[in-house]
Amino acid sequence: MPDLLEPADPRGRDRALNAPSLQPEPALAPFVVVDQADEPPLLLFDHVTKWYGPVIGVNQITLELRPGITGLVGSNGAGKSTLMRLATGQLRPDLGSVQVLGHDAWQFEAKRHVGYSPDVDNFYEDMSGRQFVETMARLCGFSRLEARRRTEETLQLVGMAQQASRRLRGYSKGMRQRIKVAQALVHDPEVLILDEPLSGIDPVGRMEFLALFRLLAERGKCLLVSSHELEELEKLTDHVAVMAEARIAAVGTLAQIRDLLDDHPLSILIGSDHPRQMAGALLAMPDVLGVDLGEQDSIVVRARNPRRFFPELAGLVLEENYDVHRLETLDDSAHAILGYLLGGRRVEKRG
Amino acid sequence: MEESGSRLEVGGSRVGVGADGALTANPSSALNLQSSLESSHSSAWLAWCYLVWFCFLRQARARQMVWIALALLTLITTVVGLVTLAGRVGMEEWRWTWVGGNQPLRINPQEKAGPPVREPPIPPHYVRLSYAETAQGMQVLPHAIPMPSSAAALQDAVAGATRIALARSRFYLFSNWVVFSVFVGFLLPIWSLSFATEALGGEREGRSLVWLLTRPLPRASIYLAKFFALLPWSLALNLGGFALICAVGGWQGHLAFRLYWPAVLGGTIAFCALFHLMGACFRRAAVIALVYSFFLETILGSMPGYMKRISIGFYTRCLMFDAAAGYGVQPEKPSIYLPVSAATAWSILFIAAAGLLVVGMIVFARTQYQDLS
């Protein structure tokens, strides 16, 4: 079985991760059909860095994608959309390269192999869904008859064949998402870049989309699917890349990432009016490896298994009525991953 | 799409939902659905031709600036039509006023040594003659007042020349005011930018450019397709609008259109290339183009010496001066205006349009539009 997510080289991966590197599990999702580990990747980010003026968009990202589904999670501004726009040739990296089947992603040859469903919701609103998809097919160079045939097939595939004659401006968010996915599929690309495709879709529609994505993966397509909702991605794929602060903070299976967090000691700065009493209580907790007294009524706790530690910490604070005025994770990577794996939202830094 | 029990139908493919909520699919269904998608070939040339046609159709939806252009066309056409109907186009109806008999001095013949005597003031009388009446008066004067035949002949010659000059003044004035000042100086750039800035600017503002940029087409070819798509609309508006204004302008308008339409064609293409480039460079291209039209074209086009030679309007006017040279139309002060020949003007307009187009293709091909999403 192939590695769906495998950094191009271990050094690059290590640079992207503050945590120890991960090795994907040998047994992957069942929709990976052939072992292509020895073949060149369909989509390759090779030490890619992108700046927006003084702000860094993505930082030294190295990633190889082969057939299958890859989930991309991260907070707003983490760099997910930048990564996807680099893959679709809308942006050019300042450093490194992005390649689609060996073609520079910026060049038009690469776009033959890429289907893109953007997160923007702007269409040619006066068109019907059918006209829009057919237009996108014609712009891929298909004849009128061929474009129509493909349009009908993709509309059927996304479940929009019946409603596609209505104008786009009258569509619901879910219908618009379906049309976006249809236009991405219409030229049968090998690589599908789907930016928040599940956003605005009702539960039944989500199941249909998840099924569709798995079908596409079965056919050897490479899907990069971004989402804020890790739970949805978990239903779709076991392989995710977690982005935080313009870097790939973690990559691999969810189990591996969680194991990593459990095993990797996490440093947490806690500000309290009673640091000594609190330090004593913390040392009694099973997941706490050590406590250092810091400056200005603060303590630094080294703990493992954050999924268990944080609820216990909250219980301790409530039970003993400690006054906690500062709580900060000191490890950026872990900080970012925690935001997603512990409750699905970012742990805010304070202080 | 239907749901029955634990099975969903996605399009034509059956998808099962397991007891644990996991989705299972029938690969053969997917194979059937997508097998035909892989079988055909695409053509970049076909895609580009369709892009030109698609962009041409999208240009029809240019809204704001086109409505402004049409409103201006209506206004100017109405004014020109009313002036033509009133017969006020030429200098024939221009009037000059001669004021006579205001407090003349008279020398008293009996008292030569004495001071002149001021007679009681005579009320002034005003004579208001049109240029046409003056010319007619000059022609009839030799017949009303006996004068030597040589003087009468001279008077006849002056009167005839004046009548011819007055007759030609219609075309001269129409050219000078309606064509050079209003049309070339104002309408031509405004009308050109209404479509040219919309071609890319509209897509950028509407955030729909992403659909074109993710198609398998070279970026430079997208820029070129947009230009070819906007050109028919701009030419139709500029040449059609010019024809309409000339049509309501009487015979001098008809003559002006016959002489000047090639210059309008050349100016339109150059302006469109410039404003299309602005659309690739600026997010608010229409505003930048308006500022350019109102200030730079106007100011540069009016400056003495060689500075005006970087304005497109200058070369358009030079083409018009050259076309109407046989009708006595020329710059008011040729030594200051320093017009160029028609061949030079054509060459520069062509080089400018081609150069701006190439620069635009390079700029568009290299620019990363970060405002797409």
Short description:
Chain A has 351 residues and is α/β, with parallel strands linked by helices.
How many discrete structural domains of chain B? 3
Q: What's the level 1 CATH class of the largest domain in chain A?
A: Alpha Beta
Strand order of the largest sheet of chain A: 6-7-8-3-9-10
State the shape of chain B. Answer: elongated
Uncertain stretches of chain B:
1-33
SS-based structural class of chain A?
alpha/beta
Low-confidence stretches of chain A: 1-36, 342-351
* SSE ordering of chain B: EEEEHHHEEEEHHHHHHHHH
Strand arrangement within the widest β-sheet of chain B reads: 1-2-3-4
- Rounded mean pLDDT score of chain B: 81
Topology of chain A as a string of helices (H) and strands (E): HEEEHEEHEHHHEHEHEEHEHEEHEH
CA distance, first residue to last residue of chain A: 46 Å
Tell me the greatest interface.
Answer: A-B, 56 and 52 residues
The percent range for strand residues of chain A is: 25-35%
Describe the main β-sheet of chain A briefly: 6 strands, mixed
Please report which band the strand proportion of chain B falls in: under 5%, 5-15%, 15-25%, 25-35%, 35-45% or over 45%: 5-15%
